Amino acid sequence: MQLAKKITIFCLMAFFFVRFVLWLASLIVIYFGIWAQVFFSQLSIVENVLGLLNILGANGIVGILVMVDIFINYYLYLYLRGVYRNIKT
Questions:
Q1: From residue 53, how far is each of 13, 56, 57, 63, 68 by CA, in Å?
Q2: Long-range CB contact pairs, 78-85, < 8 A, 24+
């Protein structure tokens, strides 16, 4: 029974970690895109990011949840990692 619980917690932990890493990678790509816009002025990355944040802000609670999703994923991963380490097999 403990092994099944440990496998389930590990799958959830991996899911939230992968979602966190994907968010982090997208933020890094946006960061370098903003720097690329400094050198190539025909890019419109800053306007697109500001438009996205404006739309998310206009969507109320759902938009706020999307904006804080990276933190939710990270802290759920940390919580599940603690649970995973405390399961005795």
A1: 28, 5, 6, 8, 12
A2: 80/9, 80/12, 80/13, 80/16, 81/13, 83/9, 84/6, 84/9, 84/10, 84/13
Q: Taking the model in full, what pTM does it have? A: 0.82
43 CB-near residues (< 8 Å, 6+ apart): 33, 36, 37
CB 63 within 8 A of CB 72: no
Q: Cα separation of 65 and 56, whole Å?
A: 9
Segment 19-63, tens digit of pLDDT: 999 999 999 999 999 898 888 888 888 888 889 889 988 998 988
pLDDT at 57: 87
CA distances for 27 relative to 11, 32, 67, angstroms: 24, 9, 12
For the chain, the structural domain boundaries read 2-86
